[in-house]
Design brief:
Elements (H helix, E strand, L loop, with lengths): L18 E2 L32 H11 L6 E4 L1 H13 L5 E6 L3 H9 L3 E6 L10 H7 L4 E7 L11 H14 L4 E5 L23 E6 L12 E4 L3 H14 L5 H12 L1 H25 L4 E4 L6 E6 L6 H11 L4 E2 L1 E2 L9 E5 L5 H13 L14
Parallel strand pairs: 1-11, 3-4, 3-5, 5-6, 6-7
Antiparallel strand pairs: 2-8, 7-8, 9-10, 10-13, 12-13
Helix pairs in contact: 1-7, 2-3, 2-6, 8-10
Amino acid sequence: MPRFPRNEIISLVGEAPRFDLAESVGPNLRVGELLGAGFDDLSLGYGTAPGDAALRQLIATAHGVEADDVVVTVGGMHALFLLAFTLCEPGDEAVVAGPVFPLARNVLTTVGATVHTLPFSFDRGYQPDLAELRRLLTPQTKLVSLASPQNPSGVAIAAATLREIVAMMQTHAPQAWLVLDETYREATYGDDTAAPSAATLGPRVVTVASLSKCHGAAGLRIGWAITRDAALREQLVTAKFNTVISCSALDEAAAVQVLTQRDRVLGERRELLGRNRSLVEAWVARHAAQVEWVRPDAGALCCVRLKHEAFDDAAVDRFHAQLSRHGVRVAPGTWFGESARVFRLGFGLLGPIELQQALAAVAATFSAGHPRFGGTAA
């Protein structure tokens, strides 16, 4: 019986420190913001296997598809699991980005797929190497799993590049499906426009997202998969029924309220993300002797790297060990299959004042106990 491998990213659902820079979410919605119309006559019976009709229509409208193209799931991870379980037999080949949110890889290995890694490196700005993807694709490839924007970097894959990937798959892996996780797509900065969804990019493209990251509603456990292939949609609905039967009627009703108020919900979060990304950018610039980053395109997250000139391997270990003494947590790159000197910094959960305090605490570790660190803690 295959088992899921353990990864220390599970600590994110444990006790939080004072300054949690490991999280990739923005501020959480409060129930009081949503209660009202739509709850008075709510029945707490089973929902439908595809998902609440009103909720599917709201999701479909936001993605330029039909409501029947949408399957509502128990969070985005449930959608990724159902797709891996449905599309991959043991021994089938799959391609997954690396670094990657570890659970997205785990669902493929757990169903017995032979997983190949398409590297996305810090030095390449976390952009895909299409020549390497071509090398990995074979007629046995059944699934290519990517994210845009990516986790942990927040870097998006350009629409033109996605079209190249779809065309390449049609030629070299005609049985394969492109599964694109768009969880962070709408978490843009300030007045930046969100990139269009890739849901209509091709007949063998499936997109996945949830309310967790952009909308501040991770506790609702509502996600979705969008496919324009009727046969695959029916398989996903059947697989969902056999795993969870249906989503919570209460969660779906609350999700309808979130998406009905999406302009307000997203607008407030985008304003905060814009301010906070600017704070991180300025912090990186002040500490350019110690750290560098890849500027994210969307999402409440980015990748920061401790420079080789300032940190030897032992110093990298000390940096991570000392953070907890300052009440700070970041997400080590090793959680995602990245170098230990890279860490994911989440800048959306804290307000601007707290974020500046947290960044100062991180900088304080630069000069602690090692003459090569230097710099100030401001």
